[in-house]
């Protein structure tokens, strides 16, 4: 395996005091005997050594905690001290694992093993407080919401893993369990009433019972009309809505058809001869050629100065500009922007050249937001993506309360201070390893290459 060979060579470049191998191994406990079996761990450690890596820490995954006798057995056959063997049993939440490891001395061991020179060791719980709070919230979720995902690839739910994770991050932040309702976009189209009325009525029923709706990205013609109809239903019925990439474009198309009364309005991706091309191809590179024309990676979005009351701007901390990841080719036609905004559809975020529309927001609606970029890619457990957080809060009718508290979940919520602490830890590690990153400018370009093309 290439990555194992890379690590084998890397350990000699950075020296032992800067390199630590943690080997995670399953320790099964068959119900027939009730005993933990260490043979899989012994075998995997032996194979790892054969590849040139020796574990410093063995993390034993098991349903229940392993006993001291099992640790000693693993120690004898795997040539590591018992204190270097950590048992991690099944926990209620994966986010409790960092706290569990800290409680079992992982920080102290790493400080000594990597010769960090931190004496005395700072109070780790200061850094772990956010994880402790997150784990507590996940095990005590106070209510539920249902979010519908109107997509084109719902047969394989993993197609929307980033979106489902971002929704979970937002739900955990505010203490809500998020139930996901996957709705096939093509089943919402009128033609399905004739071809498959059961699928048609089921799709519309599922859409109607959702507390909020996401229309995610995609490419190609299939299901686009269904996405447009979902946008229309959310707009008319004041249902919290978040459109992403193609979902942003379908929201624009729907508004053009039904509010601006532009009959036949469409995207040139789907209909090249549309009389009203409200979404057009605006390549950054190689105009006229399909290859290499996608707008990829991190780009800066600037909030318009005239939209100080924008909900999405408040969710982003009232920043003047943000950086988000993109993967698309088509844009809103600049020739129609004035007509949209005169009818209440405001483009509150634009690119640095103010030619490409990045964020739209509908006035007089609880939460009707769409973005051209992919906010789910930068969502994190401790820092959920603002558009997703807004959707979850609006789905529970708590967004106004959130704003009235100064974008805090409760009046007593302290200002988050662990971001700066994390920066300090990163600087410490970088200084000790003498690491310099010469590829920051290109990091976003290759990180999105494995994703399918979208709108």
Query: CATH top level of the largest domain?
Result: Alpha Beta
Counting helices, strands and paired strands, the structural category is: alpha/beta
The assigned CATH architecture of the largest domain is: 3-Layer(aba) Sandwich
Q: Provide the CATH superfamily of the largest domain.
A: Class I glutamine amidotransferase (GATase) domain
Percent in strands: 15-25%
Q: Tell how many strands the DSSP assignment holds.
A: 15
Largest beta-sheet details: 9 strands, mixed
Average pLDDT, rounded to a whole number, is 86
In the sheet with the most strands, the strands line up as: 5-4-6-7-15-14-13-10-11
Query: Helix coverage percent of residues?
Result: 25-40%
Rg over alpha carbons: 26 Å
How many domains in all? 2
- What's the tally of helices? 17
Enzyme class: ligase
Domain Glutamine amidotransferase: 157-391
Keywords: ATP-binding, Glutamine amidotransferase, Ligase, Nucleotide-binding, Pyrimidine biosynthesis
GO molecular function: ATP binding; CTP synthase activity; identical protein binding
Description:
This protein has 455 residues and is an alpha/beta fold. It has 2 domains: 2-136, P-loop containing nucleotide triphosphate hydrolases (Rossmann fold), CATH 3.40.50.300; 155-404, Class I glutamine amidotransferase (GATase) domain (Rossmann fold), CATH 3.40.50. 38% of the residues lie in helices and 19% in strands. It has 17 helices and 15 strands. It has a 9-stranded mixed sheet with strand order 5-4-6-7-15-14-13-10-11, with helices on both faces. It has a 3-stranded parallel sheet with strand order 1-2-3, with helices on both faces. Helix 7 packs across helix 14 (386-395) and helix 10 (224-236) packs across helix 11. The longest helix is centred in the last third of the chain and has 16 residues, at 418-433. The chain is elongated, with a radius of gyration of 26 Å. Mean pLDDT is 86; it is low at 414-455.
